[in-house]
Amino acid sequence: MKFLPFSIFFLFLSSFVLANDGYKLWMQYYPIENAESWQKEGIAKYQINATSPTLAIINDEIKRAGKGFFNFEPAENQENPKLIISKLSDLNLTTFQINKEKITALGEDGFSISKSENSETLILANTDIGLLYGTFYYLQLIQKGSEVPKEGIFQSPKIKHRVLNHWDNLDRTVERGYSGFSIWNWHRLPRHIDQQYLDYARANASIGINGTVLTNVNANSLVLTTEYLEKVKALADAFRPYGIKVYLTARFSSPIELGRLKTADPLNEVVQNWWKEKAKEVYDYIPDFGGFVVKADSEGQPGPHNYGRTQADGANMLADAVAPFGGIVMWRAFVYSENTPDDRHKQAYNEFKPIDGEFRNNVIVQVKNGAIDFQPREPFHPMFGAMPNTPLMMEFQITQEYLGHDTHLAFLAPMYEEVLKEDTFVNGKGREVAKIVDGSLDGHSLSAMAGVANIGTDRNWTGHHFHQANWYAYGKLAWNPYENSEKIADDWLRLTFNNDDTFITPVKEMMLESREMVVNYMTPLGLHHIMAESHHYGPGPWVTGGSRADWTSTYYHQASESGVGFDRTKSGSNALGQYSENLQSVWGNINSIPEKYLLWFHHVPWEHKLQNGENLWNNLALHYQKGVDEARANVKLWESMKGKIDQERFEHTLSFMKIQAEEAAWWRDACLLYFGQFSKMPLPSGVESPKHNLEYYMNYKPKNVPGI
Amino acid sequence: MKFLPFSIFFLFLSSFVLANDGYKLWMQYYPIENAESWQKEGIAKYQINATSPTLAIINDEIKRAGKGFFNFEPAENQENPKLIISKLSDLNLTTFQINKEKITALGEDGFSISKSENSETLILANTDIGLLYGTFYYLQLIQKGSEVPKEGIFQSPKIKHRVLNHWDNLDRTVERGYSGFSIWNWHRLPRHIDQQYLDYARANASIGINGTVLTNVNANSLVLTTEYLEKVKALADAFRPYGIKVYLTARFSSPIELGRLKTADPLNEVVQNWWKEKAKEVYDYIPDFGGFVVKADSEGQPGPHNYGRTQADGANMLADAVAPFGGIVMWRAFVYSENTPDDRHKQAYNEFKPIDGEFRNNVIVQVKNGAIDFQPREPFHPMFGAMPNTPLMMEFQITQEYLGHDTHLAFLAPMYEEVLKEDTFVNGKGREVAKIVDGSLDGHSLSAMAGVANIGTDRNWTGHHFHQANWYAYGKLAWNPYENSEKIADDWLRLTFNNDDTFITPVKEMMLESREMVVNYMTPLGLHHIMAESHHYGPGPWVTGGSRADWTSTYYHQASESGVGFDRTKSGSNALGQYSENLQSVWGNINSIPEKYLLWFHHVPWEHKLQNGENLWNNLALHYQKGVDEARANVKLWESMKGKIDQERFEHTLSFMKIQAEEAAWWRDACLLYFGQFSKMPLPSGVESPKHNLEYYMNYKPKNVPGI
User: Which of A599, B197, B368, B463 allows an S-S link to B406, with CB 3.0 to 4.6 Å?
Assistant: First the structure.
């Protein structure tokens, strides 16, 4: 095979663009420009030192990319290789001038990419997995048309455990899943390893994710039986060469359900021993099992409260069980009760702050980004900064439970970034959430991030093609929580679609503004949790009554003729008192609080003037209208992109964007009709009249909404 | 684009064989041999007369096939076309010598393919859909490397309504579905038309299927609400250009559930009017709606029995409602009750035979191939031949409820063929079931066939790659119930994998023998319905007791120390009396009945000698062993095929075949241990000893088995 015919090939390939269902995610490996020069410089002839299952994967990946980029299969281990992939320990250090210490310091998962004096490209690392990460990074560079900078690339993750949480049930339904059903086919396991499991692991490895929690936090103890552990082992074996560890959710009452004990009291020695035996069994199957994730004492889940014990008592019992095997416990802080009279916002902090420092050193407390529940916008959780003696991990939700489910384009990196970059001001300035999460602020070596997955059986994995970007963005921010959204969007678009700036530039802008657009048409100005009951699909500001006030909308918006918003200042629940003095003073003042948080912390009169001189009601209405206008403008923008990408993904995305625009108007109309009952003011100019009356929206109850 | 570079292309394409997940089914359009000559003769330059959505589909299909076959995009409507696709009415009859009457006689769905005097290829039909069928047929010829015979091809379907029945629920679970979940995403409908809906319609059109029943026969009246009819309409609109009509299952009690009536009595005028109004509403949405499918008075479903009415009363009410719009009613004969003391086998016949001739002329009675329920082998249903005054349609099950679910390779064409070719001997010889089903025997113009679909969200549609062949085979037999299995298997293999006879010949043989293999390791010699309870996964000959005897195994096998088998002769239930005199005499005699039906009709002593001189017990044991041996031999055979097809489908199939071999042994061991309790005889030589004891098998209860 010679280089000459390439130009001919591209001619053909352009007419070869057939259906693209999106399954290949950001690993499209479409033909690149300047293929010849990349060929010569790059991956055409490469050397890969030593063999292992992971190195075989690297090998396959290079060949696959070569076929896509150049329609050419790169050959390994030829003379005069242009690309050398090697663990530091396998490299002949007499041949290459290498800063050994610098690479050693990159640790287990780090890698470097650099040019040798003879202009070979070197991908170096301390482990096979490091090489895998480095290879993906290098292939992504090629696809983007970027060069390896002269000074080289030195990367290592800032966070140790970068995991996806699957809220997948054993019957393959997915709680808050909007892209089909669980990709884990438990029935066929352990005997059949589906190709999709490998493709899943590969996709995660390509963005640095190194763990997966297979089961729903609302846990089923069945997964801890021998029958299911054999299945879990099969998945763990499949994922291992990709550097992915498996974790399971542990139902706190398992000793009763499986072990036939009378109690699950964490201070009871028989219970402790049951867990120790169970952990031993798990590690017999899976020697590198990651550990347990626990949701306890919340939303009906059993936990240490049932026995008058603390969350630390519960977590430590499990931690002791997995400690001999190197396992960890991710103990969720999402603990609240309808029987506690206090503001739901305050309960986790009140529960955990007093036991700061009481956890074993293999426990990490998993804290959602905000104190309520994955709203389109939440101020950061006040636990961040409040527990210096306990490692805290971040839990983001990738699946869009509260952000429009499958059909609403909302690029979430800006939401994640907003929280990570927020300064807690605990003991001074520069105490950003990211520094707490990566352990640097308080010197914790245990660090982790969890993302609640948006992956399902849909042919494109995530329902909306653009929701692939949220999986990708989560991985990138788990690797480096200081990464910025603009770069993530740019890279993702180039890897997923093309390198055409007439496409990239406008679409990237649309992505970057999309989350704010959703906030505008759903919950502007700090409104929150006003979605429909149970399935959370569509607006439901009228939701009230029932068994749990803390699951109703009226609890959160407190709308009345006097105004709207939850008073969390000293005159109200004083949840604000859980934040630093600095934030208490800025956020506690109705005039200095950023307007995006206004109704989160304040009950504000309808006629109160905001910064633009308009009253609250008019501002609210204009925000809703703005969201709708943006969603409609996105449809137009996307339509103008026709022909720039393959038709299948174009049409699919367009169809969803039209739904989003319709539903944005549904949100606007329903919410403004509802709140208008209290404000008793007319809609300001520029805001469209609702299509139907309030009764219509209140009576619209779609059936069989997915995800519950 | 010139012809010369083709040889170069094939060089590349061979290394281009990447992952193949099977989504493309039997429309792989892989590169063909002698591409140059086909190019010149064939589809490179074609003419397509007139435009319509269906003709646009034909156009796309030819281009798609051209790219696959030749890596070349055929061009339409050039000078000197080599291929002309035209409705007879659009053809310039002065240019071509055409037997107009012969083509007209092919009817709505027929087509012809022939050579003109100038050696153009002509695809002619009376309708656009006929042209679509003809185009698919022609492209399949090319892929198989077949020629258009000199005398031409003249095809028309023998059966008018060729429908798939989806037992899909509105929450996307699928009753008896083993390949994931329903491909109908009701939540996204009507606003999002998924590409998979179009691919589904296309696949069906490619094999002549022209109708789809979207919903489970265990019906939910919700689908008849306006909210859902809008969704159904969206699917119907998407399917229409492919010639696929939509049908719905009608829950008999809908007038109560939706219309708030107090009764659903079919003779009540208010009820009749409710259905008339509902039918009108349905046809307002979908002018070519196919009609209703009804399961009534069976397994908990409401029906005319609730009001002391006959099945004809029920069917006719619905028939009158859809008649003004050209709709039909498919009324299922699968009616039986645990409260009827008679053999379940006899109940449908007893219910329907007395009302033969009482149905409206737009009713067709849908009869399962056998009288029990889709067993691995059943004698044909005695209703066939017993109701000359009523059109009867055949219901086959494609999904493998009783044939090993997703992982057992069982090519079902031989099973379908066996029933279709069986002579009922009603009023003489040559009264085959196929002639009743196609209406020719009794002169019915209304004819239909239903296949219970095996399609789901799995990336390859059907779970097992080879189960695609059952969907394909069903379509081919619905088009022509006289087709033979060997040709179907041969064609399917060539379209799906390759034209390599070293692959085709052995794999085809394996396919053709696979169903008998399953019979051997599950239910040899006429045994039936001895599967595990409820999910029917694995053996359960010990299933007994509970609320319904007719859902237990002991009811069907009647094993005791005196022997095994259900006596359905005169000395027993005399279900045999429902068949023709001829069959009564042959099948009624323990020595003349084909051994495959022995235990279906006779209770036979263990020591009774069969034709081979061995006793029943030894024969039973040897059949089980044979099935296991065959399943294991298939694994070996398949392993020897490595490299002949793409790795992804190869590995997937191998993995399933290994499961099948394991489960065949599970069946053998469990059944022989169970029946051995009664025979009290040792296993004959050549039969392996069971791995575990009977208790082990009886206690093995897998969790979360799909499909219920």
Answer: B463
Task: Judge if the upstream peptide bond of residue A190 is cis by omega within 30 degrees of 0.
Answer: yes
B132: β partners: none
**Single-letter residue type at A455:** I
Walk me through the domains of chain A, giving residue ranges and CATH numbers: 6-155 (3.30.379.10), 161-496 (3.20.20.80)
Task: Note the pLDDT tens digit of each residue in A352-383.
Answer: 999 999 999 999 999 999 999 999 999 999 99
Question: Residue A586: pLDDT band by 50, 70, 90 thresholds?
Answer: very high
CB contact under 8 A, A658 and B705: no
Of residues A395, A401, A458, A483, which has the active-site annotation? Answer: A401
Catalytic annotation present for A401: yes
Q: Which of B281, B299, B442, B486 is catalytic?
A: B299
What residues of A are in contact with residue B652 (Cβ under 8 Å)?
A: 192, 194-195
Contact criterion met (CB < 8 Å) for A407 and B192: yes
Does residue B642 surpass a pLDDT of 60?
A: yes
| Tokens 């992915």 sit on residue | A244
For residue A512, the 8-state DSSP code is H
Q: What is the mean pLDDT of residues A560-578?
A: 98
Give the tens place of pLDDT for each residue, A626-656: 999 999 999 999 999 999 999 999 999 999 9
d(CA B116, CA B87): 15
Nearest to A155 by CA among A437, A479, A482, A420: A479
Q: Please, which contacts does B263-268 make with residues 24 or more away whose CB atoms are closer than 8 Å?
A: B263/B307, B264/B302, B264/B306, B264/B307, B265/B306, B265/B307, B265/B309, B266/B304, B266/B307, B266/B309, B266/B313, B266/B314, B266/B316, B266/B317, B267/B307, B267/B309, B267/B313, B267/B317, B268/B307
- The position carrying tokens 């279900």 is B575
Cα–Cα distance measured from residue B90 to residue B388, given in angstroms and rounded to the nearest whole number: 41
pLDDT number for residue A14:
34
Tokens of A366: 């998993």
Task: Note if B401 is an active site residue.
Answer: yes
Residues 609-648 of A with CB under 8 A from B: 648
Per-residue pLDDT tens for A144-170?
A: 999 899 999 999 999 999 999 999 999
Chains A & B: contacts with CB separation below 8 Å: 103
B182-195 per-position pLDDT tens digit? 999 999 999 999 99
Reduce the DSSP state of residue B414 to 3 states and report it. helix
Q: Please indicate whether residue A406 is annotated as part of the active site.
A: no
pLDDT at B410: 98
**Scanning the structure block, which residue is given the tokens 């299509």?**
A691
* Contacts of residue A478, Cβ cutoff 8 Å, sequence gap at least 6: A157, A159, A162, A163, A208, A209, A449, A451
Got the DSSP string for A182-236? -S--TTTTTT---HHHHHHHHHHHHTT--EEE-S-SS--GGGGSHHHHHHHHHHH
The number of CA neighbours under 13 Å toward the Cβ of A53 is 9
Q: Residue A43: what pLDDT?
A: 80
Interface of B with A in 674-703 (CB under 8 A): 702-703
- Strand, helix or coil at B292? strand
Contact B457 A181 (CB under 8 A): yes
What pLDDT digit, counting tens, does each position of A71-107 carry? 888 888 778 899 999 999 998 888 888 899 999 999 9
Chain A residue with CA closest to B652: the answer is A194
Question: What's the CA gap between A643 and A666, in Å, rounded?
Answer: 31
pLDDT for residue A460 is more than 90: yes
* Cβ–Cβ contact A407 with B under 8 A: yes
Q: For B578-597, give one letter per residue: b (16+ CB within 10 A) or e.
A: bbbeebbeebbebeebeeeb
- Two tokens, residue B162: 């060729």
B356: number of Cβ within 10 Å: 16
Residue B172 to residue A181, Cβ atoms within 8 A:
yes
A230 touches chain B (CB under 8 A): no
Strand partners, B364: B330
